[in-house]
Amino acid sequence: MPQKFSPRTWLAVVCIVTLSQIIWWNRQTHILDLRYQTDVVQQRQQSFRPTKQKIITMPSLAIVVAGSAQRLLFNSTVHHVIRPMNNDYVVDYFAAITLQSGPAFRQASGYMGHLGYDPLLQPYLKNNNNNNNNSQTTNDVSHIQSTLQQVMSQAIASVSSTAKLRTLRVLAQPMEDDPILDPLREKIKTNDNNNNNNNNNDDNMYRQFPMMDRRPQALERTHAGNKNMIRLFLLLESLWQDVETAERIRGSRYDYILFVRDDTLWLADFHLDRLLVHPNPAVTHQQQQPPDAYILSCDARTPNMLPPEINDHGMLIRRDRAEVVGKYVTTLVQTNLQKCHRSVTQWLGKERGCNSEMILKHILQEHNIQVQLVPQSLLPFERAVVVEYKSGRKEYCFHKFCQSTEQPLTVPAGMKKCNDITSFE
After folding, report:
1. Where is this region: Disordered (predicted)?
2. What is the CATH number of the domain that holds 84?
């Protein structure tokens, strides 16, 4: 006869079974919940995992300037180049300047004795940058450099969140020697020995290198111009090392390099995008290929440029072709400049050879660098200096003037060419 359970026992059994079911259900729900949470976390992690397709990198530009502290026009670069490119381009500014400079190529020009300073930099340079002062110590130069770094960095930061002062080098004296020049020095020494000349080797080096002009009335000017040219490009080549170092740190090369002289005065906003899409009238639409470099046409200059010349005031060049210019002294030493000199005989005669503009064109052609000549308004600058009058008044004047027939640059009314200033009273 089956055993009978009391109602109390049945109630206990029902409770135990019900409780077991509840525990089992909660356990399964908890497992499902954990699985769901794991899936959600994994999905979120995947959604935040960076992918190459989602990384957007701004194009980059390095502005590279070498020259003297007195001639450096920095303020216009900040407002007309760096400011308009804010948030569209990464812009790094590289500069190397010397506190003293050699005699000017046009040292006979009256205005060269009345030079002032960039308005932004004047308070920090005027009492320190004296070409007759040879007593500047390392501490003096270091103080000037640190002060200028702060001032220039703040100026850039005030107009752009995507630009910075990457390098500022300040030297007391111009660079006059480098192992780069040793092959040239040996070549000249050999020629002197063969010709029984006992001239000072270093002094002799600049007589007809890199520019050539054997006319008696031009010897002194050519020597000074050659020496200043080598000084400038030795400084530029040392600065180029900083560009390469910056690229290693950032992990990639710049897209473009803008080489400009220290006395570059920007007169309007520079828009890189407009320059890059400007059509090249020298080729058909089907032949259109992006050029390697953009240089001012300067085809409305007086006097007119000769066929073997190209403007050497500045250049925008693709980074992969820029080393020829960044290491310009090395390029000069390795280039057969006699070939350049012989090529201009029909324009200049046998006593004269290539000037700096002819040398640049020769080098660009020798390295197969494709150049597009562009209107002045697309690279809207002129080479200028600040002149000071005895009254204390200061103004810009055009040190060298360039203009184009197509889309010419509008220049400020009343701004003179420096050679047209007859009095500094």
Report:
1. 187-206
2. 3.90.550
